[in-house]
Amino acid sequence: MMIWHVGLGASNAFMERFVGMGLRNGMISAWSHYEEAGRLTENKRSFFRSIGGRIFVDSGALSALRIRPARLDWLARQDEIAALARRTGADFVSHLDVPMERRGLANAGLSRKAALDTTIRNARDFMDADTVPARKVYVIQGWSIDEYRRCLRAFLDLGLPDGGGFGLGTCCMRMGTRGLWQIAEWARGATEGEWLHAFGVGDVAKVPRLARIGFDSIDEGNTLRAVIYGKDERLAALLAAYRGFDA
User: Which residue segments constitute the domains of the chain, with CATH numbers given?
Assistant: First the structure.
Protein backbone atom coordinates (compact mmCIF):
# COMPACT_ATOMS: atom_id res chain seq x y z
CA MET A 1 0.00 0.00 0.00
CA MET A 2 1.19 3.51 -0.86
CA ILE A 3 1.17 6.31 1.72
CA TRP A 4 1.08 9.91 0.45
CA HIS A 5 2.13 12.78 2.70
CA VAL A 6 0.40 16.16 2.56
CA GLY A 7 2.62 19.25 2.37
CA LEU A 8 4.54 19.00 -0.90
CA GLY A 9 4.19 22.75 -1.46
CA ALA A 10 5.50 23.68 1.99
CA SER A 11 8.76 25.50 2.73
CA ASN A 12 12.13 24.46 1.35
CA ALA A 13 13.17 23.54 4.89
CA PHE A 14 10.24 21.14 5.17
CA MET A 15 11.00 19.67 1.76
CA GLU A 16 14.60 18.97 2.77
CA ARG A 17 13.47 17.39 6.06
CA PHE A 18 10.83 15.36 4.23
CA VAL A 19 13.36 13.94 1.78
CA GLY A 20 15.91 13.40 4.56
CA MET A 21 13.45 11.09 6.31
CA GLY A 22 13.38 8.90 3.22
CA LEU A 23 9.80 9.77 2.23
CA ARG A 24 9.09 9.80 -1.50
CA ASN A 25 5.31 10.15 -1.94
CA GLY A 26 4.14 13.76 -1.71
CA MET A 27 0.64 15.23 -1.97
CA ILE A 28 -0.04 18.81 -3.02
CA SER A 29 -3.39 20.51 -2.43
CA ALA A 30 -4.42 22.49 -5.50
CA TRP A 31 -6.24 24.90 -3.16
CA SER A 32 -3.03 25.51 -1.19
CA HIS A 33 -1.06 25.94 -4.41
CA TYR A 34 -3.38 28.55 -5.92
CA GLU A 35 -4.93 30.24 -2.88
CA GLU A 36 -2.43 29.91 -0.02
CA ALA A 37 1.33 29.92 0.48
CA GLY A 38 1.83 26.24 -0.30
CA ARG A 39 2.95 26.56 -3.90
CA LEU A 40 4.70 23.71 -5.63
CA THR A 41 7.24 25.82 -7.48
CA GLU A 42 9.27 24.50 -10.39
CA ASN A 43 12.38 24.42 -8.19
CA LYS A 44 10.59 22.32 -5.55
CA ARG A 45 9.11 20.03 -8.19
CA SER A 46 12.49 19.51 -9.89
CA PHE A 47 14.22 18.84 -6.58
CA PHE A 48 11.57 16.34 -5.51
CA ARG A 49 11.61 14.53 -8.84
CA SER A 50 15.41 14.38 -8.83
CA ILE A 51 15.35 12.11 -5.78
CA GLY A 52 12.66 9.84 -7.20
CA GLY A 53 9.68 11.56 -5.59
CA ARG A 54 6.12 10.95 -6.76
CA ILE A 55 3.34 13.55 -6.83
CA PHE A 56 -0.39 13.32 -6.08
CA VAL A 57 -2.50 16.46 -6.77
CA ASP A 58 -5.58 16.75 -4.53
CA SER A 59 -8.33 19.32 -5.11
CA GLY A 60 -8.29 20.73 -1.56
CA ALA A 61 -12.04 21.40 -1.66
CA LEU A 62 -12.44 20.86 2.09
CA SER A 63 -10.33 23.96 2.76
CA ALA A 64 -12.50 26.01 0.39
CA LEU A 65 -15.65 24.98 2.26
CA ARG A 66 -14.26 25.58 5.74
CA ILE A 67 -13.00 29.14 5.45
CA ARG A 68 -15.35 32.04 6.19
CA PRO A 69 -16.94 32.98 3.92
CA ALA A 70 -16.80 29.68 2.03
CA ARG A 71 -15.32 29.87 -1.47
CA LEU A 72 -17.95 28.17 -3.59
CA ASP A 73 -16.28 29.52 -6.72
CA TRP A 74 -13.54 26.91 -6.15
CA LEU A 75 -16.01 24.13 -7.00
CA ALA A 76 -16.06 25.37 -10.61
CA ARG A 77 -12.26 25.58 -11.02
CA GLN A 78 -11.55 21.95 -11.85
CA ASP A 79 -9.66 22.95 -15.01
CA GLU A 80 -6.98 24.54 -12.81
CA ILE A 81 -6.49 21.26 -10.96
CA ALA A 82 -5.94 19.44 -14.26
CA ALA A 83 -3.52 22.18 -15.32
CA LEU A 84 -1.51 21.78 -12.11
CA ALA A 85 -1.29 18.02 -12.70
CA ARG A 86 0.02 18.59 -16.23
CA ARG A 87 2.47 21.29 -15.19
CA THR A 88 3.97 19.22 -12.38
CA GLY A 89 3.95 15.93 -14.27
CA ALA A 90 1.95 14.42 -11.40
CA ASP A 91 1.45 10.68 -11.01
CA PHE A 92 -2.13 10.96 -9.71
CA VAL A 93 -4.76 13.72 -9.61
CA SER A 94 -8.18 13.67 -7.96
CA HIS A 95 -11.30 15.19 -9.46
CA LEU A 96 -12.94 18.12 -7.66
CA ASP A 97 -15.32 16.45 -5.22
CA VAL A 98 -17.35 18.10 -2.47
CA PRO A 99 -16.60 16.62 0.99
CA MET A 100 -19.79 15.66 2.81
CA GLU A 101 -18.68 16.73 6.29
CA ARG A 102 -21.65 18.55 7.84
CA ARG A 103 -19.83 21.59 9.25
CA GLY A 104 -18.23 22.39 5.91
CA LEU A 105 -21.54 22.01 4.10
CA ALA A 106 -23.31 24.20 6.67
CA ASN A 107 -20.65 26.90 6.37
CA ALA A 108 -21.02 26.83 2.57
CA GLY A 109 -24.83 26.75 2.68
CA LEU A 110 -24.89 23.57 0.59
CA SER A 111 -27.49 20.84 0.92
CA ARG A 112 -26.29 17.25 0.91
CA LYS A 113 -28.03 16.63 -2.42
CA ALA A 114 -26.46 19.71 -4.04
CA ALA A 115 -23.02 18.68 -2.79
CA LEU A 116 -23.32 15.14 -4.13
CA ASP A 117 -24.77 16.38 -7.43
CA THR A 118 -21.71 18.62 -7.83
CA THR A 119 -19.32 15.75 -7.09
CA ILE A 120 -21.00 13.61 -9.76
CA ARG A 121 -21.17 16.41 -12.33
CA ASN A 122 -17.50 17.28 -11.82
CA ALA A 123 -16.55 13.60 -12.25
CA ARG A 124 -18.38 13.52 -15.59
CA ASP A 125 -16.61 16.68 -16.75
CA PHE A 126 -13.22 15.42 -15.51
CA MET A 127 -13.40 12.49 -17.92
CA ASP A 128 -12.53 14.91 -20.74
CA ALA A 129 -9.81 16.78 -18.84
CA ASP A 130 -6.22 16.50 -20.06
CA THR A 131 -4.14 15.42 -17.06
CA VAL A 132 -1.38 13.49 -18.87
CA PRO A 133 0.68 11.87 -17.43
CA ALA A 134 -1.34 11.82 -14.19
CA ARG A 135 -3.78 8.99 -13.54
CA LYS A 136 -7.23 10.32 -12.60
CA VAL A 137 -8.80 9.44 -9.25
CA TYR A 138 -12.58 9.79 -9.00
CA VAL A 139 -13.64 10.43 -5.40
CA ILE A 140 -16.66 8.51 -4.12
CA GLN A 141 -18.35 10.90 -1.70
CA GLY A 142 -21.00 10.59 0.97
CA TRP A 143 -21.56 10.39 4.68
CA SER A 144 -24.29 7.79 4.95
CA ILE A 145 -23.75 4.47 3.21
CA ASP A 146 -26.70 5.27 0.91
CA GLU A 147 -25.00 8.47 -0.24
CA TYR A 148 -21.79 6.61 -1.03
CA ARG A 149 -23.77 3.99 -2.93
CA ARG A 150 -25.63 6.63 -4.94
CA CYS A 151 -22.33 8.29 -5.86
CA LEU A 152 -20.67 5.06 -6.96
CA ARG A 153 -23.73 4.00 -9.00
CA ALA A 154 -23.59 7.31 -10.85
CA PHE A 155 -19.85 6.88 -11.47
CA LEU A 156 -20.32 3.38 -12.84
CA ASP A 157 -23.16 4.59 -15.08
CA LEU A 158 -20.70 7.11 -16.54
CA GLY A 159 -18.23 4.32 -17.27
CA LEU A 160 -15.79 5.25 -14.54
CA PRO A 161 -13.04 4.84 -13.55
CA ASP A 162 -12.30 4.94 -17.30
CA GLY A 163 -8.68 3.83 -16.89
CA GLY A 164 -8.19 5.79 -13.68
CA GLY A 165 -8.92 4.79 -10.10
CA PHE A 166 -11.36 5.47 -7.30
CA GLY A 167 -10.96 7.26 -3.99
CA LEU A 168 -13.06 7.05 -0.83
CA GLY A 169 -13.78 10.54 0.46
CA THR A 170 -14.32 12.03 3.93
CA CYS A 171 -12.33 9.31 5.75
CA CYS A 172 -10.51 11.83 7.96
CA MET A 173 -13.80 12.95 9.51
CA ARG A 174 -14.97 9.50 10.51
CA MET A 175 -13.97 7.31 13.44
CA GLY A 176 -14.30 3.57 13.49
CA THR A 177 -17.22 3.96 15.88
CA ARG A 178 -19.05 6.08 13.30
CA GLY A 179 -19.10 3.57 10.48
CA LEU A 180 -15.64 3.97 8.95
CA TRP A 181 -14.88 0.26 8.72
CA GLN A 182 -18.30 -0.69 7.37
CA ILE A 183 -17.96 1.90 4.62
CA ALA A 184 -14.31 1.07 3.89
CA GLU A 185 -15.11 -2.62 3.52
CA TRP A 186 -18.14 -1.84 1.35
CA ALA A 187 -16.04 0.42 -0.90
CA ARG A 188 -13.36 -2.21 -1.38
CA GLY A 189 -15.92 -4.88 -2.24
CA ALA A 190 -17.94 -2.61 -4.54
CA THR A 191 -14.86 -1.55 -6.52
CA GLU A 192 -13.16 -4.94 -6.63
CA GLY A 193 -10.38 -5.03 -9.21
CA GLU A 194 -10.02 -1.24 -9.33
CA TRP A 195 -7.29 0.89 -7.75
CA LEU A 196 -8.67 2.45 -4.53
CA HIS A 197 -7.38 5.32 -2.37
CA ALA A 198 -8.59 6.47 1.09
CA PHE A 199 -8.54 10.25 1.45
CA GLY A 200 -7.43 11.86 4.68
CA VAL A 201 -6.49 9.14 7.15
CA GLY A 202 -6.27 11.20 10.32
CA ASP A 203 -5.17 8.45 12.72
CA VAL A 204 -2.07 6.43 11.89
CA ALA A 205 -3.57 3.49 13.78
CA LYS A 206 -6.02 3.08 10.86
CA VAL A 207 -3.21 2.34 8.40
CA PRO A 208 -2.69 -1.41 9.00
CA ARG A 209 -6.42 -2.15 8.92
CA LEU A 210 -6.94 -0.22 5.66
CA ALA A 211 -4.07 -2.23 4.19
CA ARG A 212 -5.68 -5.49 5.32
CA ILE A 213 -9.02 -4.46 3.80
CA GLY A 214 -7.20 -4.04 0.51
CA PHE A 215 -6.80 -0.32 -0.12
CA ASP A 216 -4.03 0.46 -2.58
CA SER A 217 -3.22 3.93 -1.30
CA ILE A 218 -3.93 6.43 1.50
CA ASP A 219 -2.84 9.96 2.44
CA GLU A 220 -2.10 11.67 5.75
CA GLY A 221 -1.19 15.09 7.12
CA ASN A 222 0.28 14.08 10.47
CA THR A 223 3.89 14.15 9.24
CA LEU A 224 3.62 17.78 8.14
CA ARG A 225 2.14 18.85 11.49
CA ALA A 226 4.76 16.93 13.48
CA VAL A 227 7.57 18.68 11.58
CA ILE A 228 6.01 22.16 11.80
CA TYR A 229 5.38 21.91 15.55
CA GLY A 230 8.65 20.17 16.39
CA LYS A 231 7.01 17.00 17.72
CA ASP A 232 10.04 14.76 17.35
CA GLU A 233 8.67 11.84 19.38
CA ARG A 234 5.44 11.93 17.38
CA LEU A 235 7.42 12.06 14.15
CA ALA A 236 9.49 9.02 15.15
CA ALA A 237 6.29 7.09 15.89
CA LEU A 238 4.83 8.04 12.52
CA LEU A 239 7.92 6.96 10.62
CA ALA A 240 7.88 3.64 12.47
CA ALA A 241 4.25 3.14 11.44
CA TYR A 242 5.13 3.69 7.78
CA ARG A 243 7.71 0.90 7.72
CA GLY A 244 6.75 -1.90 5.39
CA PHE A 245 4.64 0.41 3.23
CA ASP A 246 5.50 2.36 0.08
CA ALA A 247 5.82 5.77 1.74
Answer: 2-242 (3.20.20.105)
User: Is the pTM for the entire model greater than 0.90?
Assistant: yes
Residue-wise over 91-127: b if at least 16 C-beta within 10 A, else e? bbbbbbbbbbbeebbeebebebeebbebbbebbbebb
- Contact call for residues 135 and 104 (beta carbons, < 8 A): no
Q: Quick one: which of 75, 79, 60, 183 has its CA closest to 120?
A: 75
pLDDT in tens, 156-172: 999 999 999 999 998 76
- Tell me the pLDDT tens digit for each residue of 173-207: 666 657 889 999 999 999 999 999 999 887 888 99
Strands 92-94 and 165-168: what pairing? unpaired
Task: Let me know: does 3 contact 207? Beta carbons within 8 Å.
Answer: yes
What's the rounded Cα separation, in Å, for the pair 162 and 37? Answer: 34
